[in-house]
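F.,

This is the one I mentioned.
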């Protein structure tokens, strides 16, 4: 399981280190212009791989966002695992968003399935079916099923998954990362109702995305 982050995703440390080394090398060679450009690139990479701690809601009957970004779809469509029609919330992450993904609920990872595919703009609905993606099926403590789909985008070319089948996860726990712009689809349990709207900004592990239909605010 992925350990708590020091503020930067461990996946990004080698890339950040390489960028810093290149910047210093160019500076020592006296190539000021190129060193400055590499410095800006290093700052961007460090910003991209940031992994801030989040305050995870503790109330019963709540599900949190699996990703940072903008809600680009709220509706119903077929679940990629069960094939049943379910509620879906799609979140688009641009290159300036935090790209660490988190579990929407506490439960157990029942299944992980990878689908090769294209690299279309992740903000398009067809990206859910045509792009490269990694699907995680989670069973919560009440036996309800949730599906989280990590989708590669136009720039994103690598999906990272930090959990395995059979792992227990907590609500808001880090479960993966998608590098450089992407999308996450959340298929919601039928006993829950989505609480977000189109174009809303959401934050992984922190924004309440769905509530149990008969639950009350605590």
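My design for it:
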């Amino acid at each position: 399981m992925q350990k708590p982050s020091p503020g930067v995703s461990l996946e990004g440390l080698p890339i950040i280190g390489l960028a810093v080394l290149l910047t210093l090398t160019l500076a020592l060679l006296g190539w000021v212009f190129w060193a400055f450009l590499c410095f800006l690139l290093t700052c961007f990479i460090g910003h991209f791989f940031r992994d801030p701690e989040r305050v995870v809601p503790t109330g019963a009957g709540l599900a949190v966002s699996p990703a940072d970004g903008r809600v680009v779809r709220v509706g119903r469509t077929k679940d990629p695992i069960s094939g049943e029609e379910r509620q879906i919330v799609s979140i688009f992450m641009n290159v300036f968003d935090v790209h660490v993904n988190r579990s929407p609920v506490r439960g157990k990872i029942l299944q992980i399935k990878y689908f090769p595919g294209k690299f279309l703009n992740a903000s398009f609905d067809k990206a859910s079916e045509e792009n490269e993606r990694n699907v995680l099926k989670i069973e919560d403590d009440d036996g309800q099923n949730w599906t989280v789909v990590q989708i590669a985008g136009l720039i994103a070319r690598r999906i990272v998954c930090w959990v395995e089948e059979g792992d227990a996860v907590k609500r808001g726990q880090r479960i993966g990362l998608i590098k450089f712009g992407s999308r996450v689809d959340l298929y919601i349990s039928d006993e829950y109702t989505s609480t977000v709207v189109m174009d809303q900004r959401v934050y992984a592990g922190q924004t309440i995305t769905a509530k149990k239909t008969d639950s009350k605010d605590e």
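Residues 10-48 form one domain.

Talk soon.
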